[in-house]
């Protein structure tokens, strides 16, 4: 019975769109002229899809269904979400994800308001009586994932970040409250409390973190916390193109990181919907948290929230969601007179990648950007590819920055490199898709340290940055590099720091420190102004004459010494943290206080997030007290001077 209901809501991943109603000042506008999004039903043979188009925009995007402004959350709930509730009592997990541009109505559809309850509230109203009847209970958890990939408990925000473990195929959360609910009222109060704790709470620039809710169906008969199944609701942060100048001066690096985690989740939906063999669950904290509610028999509802008036970010988001609907059809707007899209034409797109594409896919380290690149370039028949290329250009042109922020040289390098492989594509196609991928994976901002942290993941940002074809000796540090051969192509990022063992890193620092001490004392004793040689590559690099520097800054030698000493201290801490984030098990065990168990734990944490240790405080996550941390540092630093 339940399975039948689930069949009605489609396959594993269902993609629907929802056009937001006009609100606030928009409501005073004439809807017919300001409304730019339109849709038509594609009721052809077995297809019941909907094609979405935007005024003055050449592309159409297919989704499984589109709800108009006048179709309320209750209708969406009963048609799309209700079957998940019944399925939860049979042990099936599910996930409802709202994504879209800023202000597109994501919170409205998930949480709603007092007058118009959202999908989560409607689900709880249904969960409670069924649970009562079946001897089960309902408990809820609220969490937030911020741009630093930190997950925090929103019902107890003082707690340290949430840790995710896998135990017999199920996710376990350390540090996430699970609160029983007995009424809708109680639930709404908890929801309000969670919203108040949200650090990325809606500001002028919109919600800047992802908010998640887990509804647990708990068995009353068994031990406490024996969850039968769960249903997740995810209110994603609003997508924003960082290449547009942010009007509220928000930190672009922050937005970039948030966008990356949106892509990670959409990539999973795409991979699941297209039956890919590798599902990249570990690419972000959010996908790790949701992992056991995305795989297996779980169902996913992806709700693409659309702003009713023109919004380039909305078009981009729906294009991403619709890419897994396979039947994306592009046509010029000249003949967009609400004609049905030719399904025969759409079905031309094969689901399986070609042999050559498989060759391309051969590397297990294939990255997100590459996958998209491959798909567009390989799996689309020529006719369709030409359409894609033509259709992509206006979108691309619209969205590329006017400033020199993004030159096309990166794209051209990719295109040229691909042209050197044995895959023959029209160069234009590659150019268009590479540019699109640049948009999909915007480059990191200058100084974004995550480029160093994870070479494979970060490749998506390669397009607009310095792209280096193998053999270019000029720039090796932190530079994405394409290796190509006639057989395959792999893309790697040269990491700026190859993380030598901590002993040698600390030795370098020690040398710097000794050099600094001796030069400082010689400055104190000797007024002769000899410039101090730069010490490569240790930190900090001292280029100035100390006495001049002191005079310039009006500091006494002692103040200078203390200040530099504290700079050294923080450098040592950074090296130490970097070691914890990169060393292998045996190396880790060389540290005081790290035994077999803690070393394993550190490796587990690194599985969840590529850089779990950002400050010494994070060592508390592996069970060390503040006193123990201090002791460890003292010992490591003390050893530096053991050979003085
Ligand atoms: N279907 C709708 N009908 C009428 N008004 C709506 C609808 N959906 C959203 N709104 C209104 O639009 C505004 C923005 O909605 P909402 O806060 O849900 O957007 P959001 O996508 O969650 O924003 P953010 O990007 O900040 O996360 C709110 O004032 C909300 O009340």
TrEMBL record:
One of its GO terms (molecular function) is ATP binding. PROSITE patterns: KINESIN_MOTOR_2. ATP binds at residues 100-107. One of its GO terms (biological process) is microtubule-based movement. It comes from the Eukaryota. Keywords: ATP-binding, Microtubule, Motor protein, Nucleotide-binding. Residues 12-327 form the Kinesin motor domain. GO terms for cellular component: kinesin complex; microtubule. InterPro entries: Kinesin-like_fam (IPR027640), Kinesin_motor_dom (IPR001752), Kinesin_motor_dom_sf (IPR036961), P-loop_NTPase (IPR027417), RuvA_2-like (IPR010994). Belongs to the TRAFAC class myosin-kinesin ATPase superfamily. Kinesin family. KIN-10 subfamily. This is Kinesin motor domain-containing protein. It comes from Vigna angularis var. angularis.
């Amino acid at each position: 019975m339940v399975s039948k209901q689930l069949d009605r809501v489609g396959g594993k991943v269902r993609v629907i769109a929802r056009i937001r109603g006009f609100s606030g000042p928009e409501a005073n506008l004439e809807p017919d002229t300001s409304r730019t999004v339109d849709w038509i039903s594609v009721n052809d043979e077995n297809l019941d899809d909907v094609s979405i188009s935007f005024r003055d925009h050449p592309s159409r995007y297919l989704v499984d269904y589109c709800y108009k402004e006048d179709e309320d959350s209750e209708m969406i709930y009963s048609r799309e979400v209700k079957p998940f509730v019944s399925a939860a009592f049979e042990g099936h997990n599910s996930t409802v994800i709202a994504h879209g541009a800023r202000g597109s109505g994501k919170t409205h559809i998930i949480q709603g308001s007092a007058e118009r309850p959202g999908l989560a509230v409607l689900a709880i109203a249904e969960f409670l009586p069924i649970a009562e009847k079946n001897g089960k209970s309902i408990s809820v958890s609220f969490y937030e994932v911020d741009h630093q990939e930190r997950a925090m408990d929103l019902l107890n925000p003082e707690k340290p970040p949430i840790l995710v473990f896998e135990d017999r195929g199920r996710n376990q959360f350390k540090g996430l409250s699970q609160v029983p609910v007995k009424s809708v009222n109680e639930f709404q109060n908890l929801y309000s409390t969670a919203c108040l704790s949200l650090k990325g709470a809606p500001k002028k620039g919109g919600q800047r973190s992802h908010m998640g809710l887990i509804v647990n169906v708990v068995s009353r008969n068994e031990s406490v916390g024996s969850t039968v199944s769960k249903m997740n609701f995810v209110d994603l942060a609003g997508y924003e193109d960082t290449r547009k100048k942010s009007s509220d001066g928000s930190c672009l690096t922050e937005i970039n990181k948030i966008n990356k985690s949106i892509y990670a989740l959409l990539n999973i939906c795409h991979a699941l919907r297209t039956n890919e063999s590798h599902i990249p669950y570990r690419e972000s904290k959010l996908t790790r948290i949701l992992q056991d509610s995305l795989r297996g028999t779980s169902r996913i509802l992806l709700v693409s929230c659309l702003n009713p008036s023109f919004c380039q970010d909305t078009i981009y988001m729906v294009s991403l969601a619709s890419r897994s609907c396979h039947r994306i059809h592009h046509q010029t707007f000249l003949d967009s007179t609400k004609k049905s899209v030719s399904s025969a034409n759409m079905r031309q797109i094969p689901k399986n990648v070609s042999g050559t594409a498989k060759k391309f896919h051969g590397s297990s380290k294939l990255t997100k950007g590459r996958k998209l690149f491959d798909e567009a370039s390989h799996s689309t028949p020529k006719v369709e590819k030409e359409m894609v290329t033509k259709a992509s250009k206006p979108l691309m042109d619209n969205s590329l920055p006017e400033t020199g922020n993004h030159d096309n040289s990166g794209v051209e390098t990719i295109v040229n490199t691909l042209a050197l492989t044995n895959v023959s594509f029209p160069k234009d196609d590659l150019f268009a898709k590479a540019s699109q991928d640049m948009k999909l994976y915007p480059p990191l901002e200058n100084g974004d340290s995550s480029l160093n942290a994870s070479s494979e993941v970060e490749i998506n940002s390669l397009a607009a940055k310095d792209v280096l074809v193998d053999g270019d000796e000029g720039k090796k540090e932190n530079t994405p590099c394409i290796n190509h051969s006639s057989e395959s192509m792999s893309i790697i990022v040269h990491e700026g720091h190859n993380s030598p063992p901590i002993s040698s890193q600390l030795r370098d620092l020690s040398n710097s420190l000794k050099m600094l001490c001796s030069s400082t004392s010689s400055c104190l004793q000797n007024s002769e102004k000899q410039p101090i040689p730069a010490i490569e590559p240790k930190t900090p690099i001292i280029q100035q004459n100390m006495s001049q520097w002191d005079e310039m800054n009006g500091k006494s030698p002692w103040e200078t010494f203390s200040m530099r000493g504290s700079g050294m201290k923080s450098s040592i801490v950074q090296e130490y943290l970097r070691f914890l984030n990169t060393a292998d098990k045996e190396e880790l065990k060389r540290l005081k206080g790290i035994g077999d168990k803690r070393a394993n734990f550190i490796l587990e944490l690194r599985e969840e997030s590529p850089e779990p240790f950002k400050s010494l405080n994070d060592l508390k996550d592996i069970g060390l007290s503040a006193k123990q941390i201090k002791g460890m540092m003292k010992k490591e630093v003390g050893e530096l001077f053991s050979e003085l």
